[in-house]
């Protein structure tokens, strides 16, 4: 009787371990598949970004993105997020990025670029206590030079503006956010 109980306990233990390992392997496969999908640039219309975008900084001064980045000494790659001040998913992403910057989750600080009227963008940033640097771009300039129609639009480009990674839209799913931050942090 004692041997039967011992065998049963061993069998149950082996089954539980197998189930646990199966779930871990399944999760890792799904994570790898999601990372691969995320690296596919999500069918973006662009393969590079014109880095000579005409923007306004948070003081309302007109600037050109390439000159601004050069003045800041940033050159390897850039994490750029385009958003609309009327887009709720955009606001969710900006708040998340602001939190990530606050707790150093991201190695690369995002360059936020709001599309549309400077005052609306400035008000949105102020109302939500966003501490990240931000810029605004006219809708016509965005349509002409960026050529994408979905926001939020998150891009990682090299110093020449060549697209390294891109993602349209927003998801607050923890696994997706973790993969997103891992992908962003993989660029220097």
Fold blueprint:
Layout: H1 2-38, E1 54-56, E2 62-64, H2 65-72, E3 77-83, H3 88-102, E4 111-115, H4 118-127, E5 134-137, H5 139-145, E6 153-158, E7 163-168, H6 174-185
Parallel strand pairs: 3-4, 4-5
Antiparallel strand pairs: 1-2, 3-6, 6-7
Helix pairs in contact: 1-6
Distance between the termini: 63 Å
Shape verdict: elongated
Helix content: 40-55%
CATH topology of the largest domain: Glutaredoxin
What is the strand tally?
7
Number of helices: 6
Strand portion, in percent?
15-25%
Q: Radius of gyration in whole Å, from Cα?
A: 22 Å
Low-pLDDT residue intervals, each spanning 5 or more residues: 26-32, 34-40
Q: Pairing-aware structural class of the strands and helices?
A: alpha/beta
What is the residue-averaged pLDDT? 81
Strand order of the largest sheet: 5-4-3-6-7
Largest sheet: 5 strands, mixed
Under CATH at level 1, the class of the largest domain stands as: Alpha Beta
Summed up, the domain count is: 2
Q: What would CATH call the architecture of the largest domain?
A: 3-Layer(aba) Sandwich
CATH superfamily of the largest domain: Glutaredoxin
Order of SSEs, N→C? Answer: HEEHEHEHEHEEH
